[in-house]
Every structure is written in C-alpha cells, then in structure tokens.
Design a protein that fits this description.
single chain, alpha/beta, Rossmann fold, Zinc Finger, Delta Prime, domain 3, 3 domains, five-stranded parallel beta sheet, two-stranded parallel sheet, elongated
C-alpha cells in the first residue's frame, strides 16, 4: 500500500493518518513502524528505509513527512515507488503540495492520493454538531455559529476548543464559549472594524481594552488592520464574485472572506483607500514622533464614518 495524504486541513490529515496507523498496529505492532522527516534525511537513507524488508516483522510501515523538502527525493519519486516492496506500506504526508509539480502528478498517478481541505462553514456546522454529540455534549446551531465566529474554520483548533468546553460543562452555550474560547486575531480585528464602521463606540472601546489586557501591542493592531483593509480591497475589486471564488483566486481563507463581506458592502474603494492612507499616516507618525499610540489609534478608529 502506498498512500499520499495531502490538503490544508491538518485535523483531517492527522485523523486519516491516525486511522491508518491504528489498523496497521493492530496487525503488526508498533515495532514495524518507521517515521521519517524527508527534509532532514539524506535521499539514500530514505531509499534504503523504503526498499529494505523488516527483519523482525513480515511487514513494515514507513511514514514519510515533508518529502517535498528534499529535491532529490522529489525528482526520484518514481524510483522510490517502484522499489517499495509489496510487504512495505508507505504513507507520504504532504500538507502543502504544489499541484503544478511533476512530483504531485506522479503521486496522484501512482499512489492512493487522499486530499483533505478545509470544510466550508455549513459542513463545519454539521461536523461540530456530530462531534459534540459523539463526545456526550449538547450545543445549538446558534452557538455553533458563534463558536465558528470566534475560532475560524480550523478543525484542529475547533476540536481542542470542543474538548475544553465539554470538560467545563456538557451543555455548551454562548456564555461558556465567551468565557473559555480565545478569539483568533482575525476575528478580533474584524469585530473592531465592524464596531467602528457601525458607530458602536462603546463596543469599539471594549474590544480595544480587551486587546490591551491580553497584552496585544498597538503596532500589532495596526498591522492586522492593514491586513483587513487589504482583504476588503480585494473583495471590492472582485465585484460580484462569490466569496468562494474570491478566496480561491486570491489564496485566502474562505472564512476570512465571508466574515469581511458585510463590512465590504458598506464601503467603496474610495473609503478603503482613505482609511488605508490614514493608517499609513499614523504608522509614519509613530516612527518619527513621540505620540501616545493608543490615543492616536483610538481617535482614528472612532473617526470612521461610512
């Protein structure tokens, strides 16, 4: 068996690997498993490990990660596959693989290639509902959406947060989510801009204060604001394209694009250009003058009107 596991969804990639390993261990035990990091090992060592038979067991499994970090390995992938005995199972883990390369095309043609990418928000809602129930918990659809809003679409992070939440109480609700889940930076910045564009001064000040309590420096907030404005500009320039198409064509997270759409609908490119210019002006002042950075940044955010 020669399998390639690839895709941006680390949770599903690792889950698939865990299932393959479990099945193999049940038949042959752990002693028959070798783990190799292709980026740290010479090609000859990889070749010998894959092609040699096990002296202790009738079969062995080689888990090879990041083979794409070894150019000789990539160029010789057909030789590796050709020289893998039927008694050896080879599992190649390549989370981020360039599909334009001959390496990828060879893996797709000659191995059992299994690709796992991030779920969209609707798929993720169903998965969370099933996962919480499987672990003996309960959660409503509204609270699932709230959890996704705070954590994004990363299944690995969501799985860890579900574990934490169920350990606290079986019934997951908004209150426990707000208490235990730390929002990802993109979500916080989105909330900050959303409050600014909506004229919600009290909410804006609260979010900013929360960032200070978490020791997030103003310079980090400025950098994240610049990043968010870049996303908004891409969305506006994409016209009426769907969020999925915008994300795919610009190599962006579908979650980030979908979360930014509501703000983008309130703006035109002129608004984004003006705010970007104001943010740049503030950044230049901070590097050349002695000013209160928190006060200056808050004034900029509070002055936004759309």
């Amino acid at each position: 068996m020669i399998v390639t596991i690839t895709g941006s969804n680390n949770f599903l990639v690792e889950t698939e690997l865990k299932n393959i390993l479990s099945d193999f261990k049940n038949l042959h035990g752990e002693i028959a498993i070798e783990q190799i990091d292709g980026s740290d090992v010479e090609y000859q060592a990889i070749f010998e490990s894959v092609s040699n038979l096990s002296f202790l067991t009738p079969s062995k499994m080689i888990i090879l990660r990041r083979g794409s970090g070894n150019k000789i390995f990539m160029d010789s992938i057909e030789e590796i596959i050709k020289n893998t005995p039927d008694t050896n199972d080879l599992v190649i883990i390549e989370p981020n693989i360039d599909k334009r390369l001959a390496y990828y095309k060879t893996l797709k043609k000659l191995t059992d290639l299994r690709e796992y990418n991030e779920l969209d928000s609707n798929q993720l809602v169903r998965w969370i509902d099933e996962e919480v129930e499987k672990r003996g918990g309960q959660i409503s659809n509204a609270d699932i959406r709230h959890l996704i809003d705070l954590t994004g679409l990363n299944q690995m992070k969501l799985s860890n947060e579900i574990t934490k939440l169920i350990s606290y109480q079986r019934r997951i609700n908004k209150e426990s989510i707000d208490l235990l889940v730390e929002p990802i930076p993109q979500t916080t910045i989105f909330q900050l801009l959303d409050a600014a564009f909506s004229g919600q001064s009290k909410q804006l000040l609260k979010i900013y204060d929360d960032q200070k309590k978490q020791k997030i420096e103003p310079q980090q907030i400025i950098a994240m604001l610049a990043w968010q404005l870049h996303i908004l500009a891409i969305i506006k320039a994409s016209g009426k394209d769907s969020s999925g198409k915008i994300a795919k064509e610009n190599n962006l997270s579908p979650f980030v694009v979908s979360k930014s759409l509501n703000i983008a609908q309130r703006l035109n490119l002129g608004d984004i250009k003006k705010l970007t210019g104001n943010l740049l002006e503030l950044d230049v002042k901070l590097k050349n003058k002695n000013i209160d950075i928190d006060e200056a940044l808050l004034q900029l955010l509070l002055s936004i009107h759309v």
